[in-house]
Amino acid sequence: MAYRPKRNFRQRAADSSDSDSAEESPAEPGTSTEFPAPGPAEEEPPSGGGRAQVAGRPHRIRGPRGRGRVWASSRRATEAAPRADEGSGVQESRTVDVSTDEEDEIHHSSERKDDQGLSSDSSSSLGEKELSSAVEIPDAAFIQAARRKRELARVQDDYISLDVEHASTIFGMKRESEDDPESEPDDHEKRIPFTLKPQTLRQRMVEESKNRYEETSQESQEDEKQDIWVQQQMRKAVKIIEERDVDLSHSCGSSKVKKFDTSISFPPVNLEIIKKQLNTRLTLLQETHRSHLREYEKYVQDVKSSKSTIQNLESSSNQALNCKFYKSMKIYVENLIDCLNEKIINIQEIESSMHALLLKQAMTFMKRRQDELKHESTYLQQLSHKDETSTNGNFTVDGKTQWILEEIESRRTKRKQARVLSGNYNHQEGTSSDDELSSAEMVDFQKSQGDILQDQKKVFEDVHDGFCNIQNILLKFQQWREKFPDSYYEAFISLCIPKLLNPLIRVQLIDWNPLKLDSTGLKEMPWFKSVEEFMDSSVEDSTKESSSDKKILSTIMNKTIVPRLTDFVEFLWDPLSTSQTTSLITHCKVILEEHSTCENEVSKSKQDLLKSIVLRMKRAVEDDIFIPLYPKSAVENKTSPHSKFQERQFWSGLKLFRNILLWNGLLTDDTLQELGLGKLLNRYLLIALLNATPGPDVVKKCNQVAACLPENWFENSAMRTSIPQLENFIHFLLQSAHKLSRSEFRNEVEEIILILVKIKALNQAKSFIGEHHLDHLKSLIKED
C-alpha cells in the first residue's frame, strides 16, 4: 500500500486578522501552486527509506466511478498560514520544498511494500507518474485550509472587518471591561441569572473551531479509505494490462505457438451431412430473399403511389379556388343557420296564433252541435210527455231552448234554399255539417286570420333571398354536389337539407289547411316543386351515394308535414264533416302512399298519424252519435217532430259510417271493420232500423248502408258467406224480406236479395229463394 502522510490539523492563528487573506482558486494542471497547509507533518516512512518532510497531501481527482488522486512529480508547496497575536497584525509564512527524488523514493518504497504479489513495480510506478503528470488539481487539504482560514477571519467580530485597528481596539476594550474589578456591580445590583450565561465571542470561536476540526478529521478518514480503494483498483487495472501484454508477447513468438492436439476426436463428416447443411442454409437464404423481394415490391408500390399523389397535387391548379369555395360555403351555411335560429321563435308564435284561431272555430262548431242536440232531444222528450207536464194540454218551452230551436230551424232553411238553387234535390236531412258562421263571427275570424297572414309575410322581409328562398338555398348545395360530389356525400348533406328547410317550409304552411277542399295541395306549393327539381337533378348520377338525395322529400314529409297534419287530426278535424274528411284523405294519400322512402315503409310519424285518425273517429262515434227510440205511434207520422229528429240522427250516423269507410286503403281492414261495423252499424244504425216499420224506406236505408261498404272486402269469388261483422245486418235483411214477401211491398224483396248478393251472403240468399219459391230470383245468384 502506498505511503501517505497523516494529517495533523492543528488549530492555530485563532486570534489573527484576515485583512491580508484572500481566497485562492485551484491551479491549472501543469503549473506550480502556492497554498497554505494546515501545519507541518513529519513522519518516517514505514519502509525505512529516506526521510522527507511533506507539506501537504497529494492532489485528488474525483471521477464518475469514484475518487482518485494523482501524484505530482515536482512541486513547491508554499504554505502561508496567517498567525497573529491578539491586537497585532503579525503573519507567518512557511514554505516547504519537497524534492522530486524524495517524493519518488517515498512513492517507490511504499509501492514495493504494498505490492505483495506483483513481480514488477516499475510498470505501476510508471503508470501513476504518467497520470500525475497529466492532471494537477488542488487536493482537499488545500481547500479545507483555505476555507478554515476564511472562517477564522469572520468569527472574530462576527463579520470580516475592513479596519483592523478599530476591530482590535473594540476587542481590547471589551476585554479590559471584563477584567476591571471596579466595574463590577454591587451585590444588590447583580441580576439573578435565569438562563445560561451566553458565551463570549472567543469561546464561540474556539468551540466552532473544534467542531470544524472534528468534522474535517472524519472527512479525512473517509478520504483515506476512498484513496486506498482507488489505489487498489488502479493496481488491479495495471496488472490486467501487464498480463494482456504478456499474452500478446507470447502469442507473437513463434517458439511459443501451441501445437494442434491430434488426440482430439471430431464427429464423422460425410457428403450427405454437408449437402444437407448446405440445402438448409440455401433454403433460409431463399426465404430471406423472397421476403426482401416482397418488401421491395411494397416499397416500389408506395413510391408509385406517392409519385401519383404528388402529380395529382401538382396538376391540381385549382386548389386555391377549391379552398375559396369551401370557405364561402362554410360562411354561407353558418349565416343561414344564424338567420333561421333567429327567425324560428317568430315562426312558432305565428303558428301558435293560427292554430289557436282554427281551434277556437272548431270548438265553436262542436259545442254548438252538441248543445243543439241536447236541447232538441230534451224538447222532444218533454213534448212526448206533455200530458204529464201540463194539465190543460198546453206545452211551454223556456226562452233559451226556444231561441236555440229557432236558430236551428233558420240555418236549416237557409241550407235547403241553397240546395234548391244548386239543383240538389236528393239531399237527406241530417247529412249537413252545420258549420255555418254568423256574419259577425265570420268578419271577426277573417280579420284575425288576415292579421296572422300579414305577420307571416313580415317574417323574412328583412332577409336576403339567398337565405329565405328555398330554391336559392338548394341551388347552393346543387353547385357543391356538381363540383365536389365526394365531399358532398361524405358530409351527408341529404340529411341536413330537411332540417335547414324546416323553418322555411313551416312559414309556407301557416296558411295551409288540409281540412278545406279548396286548400292548396302539397304538390302545388313552391317548396315542393323546388325540392323535386333538386332531387331530379341528382337522377343523372347513378351512384349509390346519390340515392340519399332521393329521400329528401320523404324525409321532409315525415319530419315537417306529418306532425302538422297530426295536429289537425287531433284538434281540428270533424269526422262528421264529409268535406273535411275527403280533403284530409287526399293529403294523407299524397304523404302515405306516394312519398314513402321505400316499399312498405311506415315511419314512426306516420304511425302516429294513423293512430290519431282512429282515435278521433272513435271519439266521434262515442260523443256525436245519438239515435233516440220513440214509440211507433210517435214516429209513424213522418211529419211529426219525433220522426224528423230520428231521421236526421240516423242519416247523421250513416254519414259518419260512410266517412269512416272512406279511409279504406289507408287504414287496415280489421280497424275499419271493428270501428265502422262493430261500433257504429251494429250498435246504432241497426237498432234504428229494427225500430222502423218495414217498407221501401227501410230498404232504401239498407241500400245506403251496403253502398258504403268497400268493394274490395267482397272481391274473393270463392266467398259464400259474408264477413262476421255483417251477420246481424244480414239477419235483419232476411227478416225484412220475410215481412215484405207477405205484404204489399213484394217488389222490395228483390232489392234485399241484391243486397245479400253484393255483400257475399250467397248461401243465405239461396236458402231464402228456395224457401219462398222465388225461382225468378235465382238468376241473381251466380253459381261458380
From TrEMBL:
Region (Disordered): 1-140, 171-227
Biased composition (Basic and acidic residues): 76-86, 105-116, 204-215
Compartment(s) of residence: Nucleus
Comp. bias regions, Acidic residues: 17-26, 216-225
GO MF, one annotated term: DNA binding
Biological processes, Gene Ontology terms: spliceosomal complex assembly
Top-rank lineage group of the source organism: Eukaryota
Name this polypeptide is given: GC-rich sequence DNA-binding factor 2
Organism: Callithrix jacchus
Gene: GCFC2
